[in-house]
Amino acid sequence: MQKIYPSIPVLKEDEGKIVEISYKPEAKYLISAGQAISRFLNELKNGKIIGRKCFKCNRILVPPRMYCEICFKSTDEWVYVRDIGKVVTAVVSYITVDARKAEKPEVVGIIEFLDAPTQGIFHRINVNPEYVVNRKIFGVTVKAVWKKENERKGDINDILYFEPIEEIK
Q1: 27 within domain boundaries
Q2: 12-39 tens-digit pLDDT
Q3: Which residues contact 58 (CB under 8 A, 6 or more apart)?
Q4: What is the DSSP string of 77-131?
Q5: CA–CA distance, 143 with 110 (Å, rounded to integer)
Q6: Structural domain contains residue 57
Q7: What phi and psi values does residue 140 have, to the nearest 5 degrees?
Q8: H or E stretch including 146?
Q9: Which residues contact 127 (CB under 8 A, 6 or more apart)?
Q10: Which of 135, 91, 86, 85 is nearest to 109 (CA)?
Q11: Exposed, middle or buried by CB within 10 Å (0-12, 13-18, 19+), for 47?
Q12: How many CB atoms lie within 10 A of CB 166?
């Protein structure tokens, strides 16, 4: 049986007008990040980076996943990785994460962790944008710079940015 919803006919004097209804919904909800990402975020709050190891592929997955996307098997154990990696790719961004014009350009890129090669995260890199333009940042070793312990919330922004720990040539 089809449900019939009542409607309000448009009056002749309202033709061509846009009807606007304002209300504030009282939506209450909880969202789970899942077992792997929840643990990852909790460890970020503690100033640590954790991944999951797949014994079959012999890879450490960062961010962690409970299933390996290569061999389709469950990952086997939790593994802490150092917060040091190499810049795989980078761009100069002129917009903020919420799509507004940035006050100044920012360098963002993929950091591949030394302890988890072939895996990485997208994050800010604290370098002069010229290093991206001149292609000098690629392959540079960087280290995470963390928020103060009492300011961490358990999200990716607990890492303020990555910065080079070697001279950029």
Answers
A1: no
A2: 777 777 767 777 888 888 888 899 999 9
A3: none
A4: EEEEE-SEEEEEEEEEEEE-TTSPEEEEEEEEEEEEETTSTT-EEEEEE-S-THH
A5: 13
A6: yes
A7: -75, 140
A8: strand 141-146
A9: 107, 137, 163, 164, 168
A10: 91
A11: middle
A12: 11
Q: Which domain holds residue 149?
A: 35-164
Does the residue 114 lie in any domain?
yes
Total domains present in the chain: 1
Query: Could you write out the DSSP letters of every residue in 30-70?
Result: -----HHHHHHHHHHHTT-EEEEEETTTTEEESS--SB-TT
Six-digit token pair at 160?
A: 């303020």
pLDDT in tens, 100-150: 898 999 999 999 999 998 889 999 999 999 999 999 999 999 999 999 999
Per-residue pLDDT, 19: 67
Question: Distances in Å between the alpha carbon of 142 and those of 34, 84, 124?
Answer: 29, 6, 11
**Rounded to an integer, what distance in angstroms lies between the CA atom of residue 21 and that of residue 152?**
39
Residue 9 resides in a domain: no
How far is it, in rounded angstroms, from Cα 111 to Cα 141? 9
